[in-house]
Amino acid sequence: MSKPLFIPLRSEYYEQFASGTKREELRRYGPRWNEKTCAVGRAVVLSKGYGKQSRMSGKIWQFKKQRGDLFGSTYRKAILNVFGTLNIEIACISINILDEAPS
What we know:
Blueprint: E1 5-9, H1 11-19, E2 24-28, E3 43-48, E4 55-67, H2 73-83, E5 89-100
Parallel strand pairs: 1-3
Antiparallel strand pairs: 2-5, 3-4, 4-5
């Protein structure tokens, strides 16, 4: 069994996961974010930044690799803001929040 995948988030995205309005995290597909590291069923720890105060535990329930330009308009805008292009592969990690992780 692999250890939980650590996913640091900006405060706004952490709060969206906490409130249930966000269920997917987008990362640039590559050695750190791929089918192997983001296996369905793997436990995750979502963290507000890199601190230890605000954390939640969850589980990956779906993973897909997709080109940036194939996402809907909201995700395309976010991808452009972060990466400056839609011509990249994106790891789309769907996460079910289980509870707040211990500090």
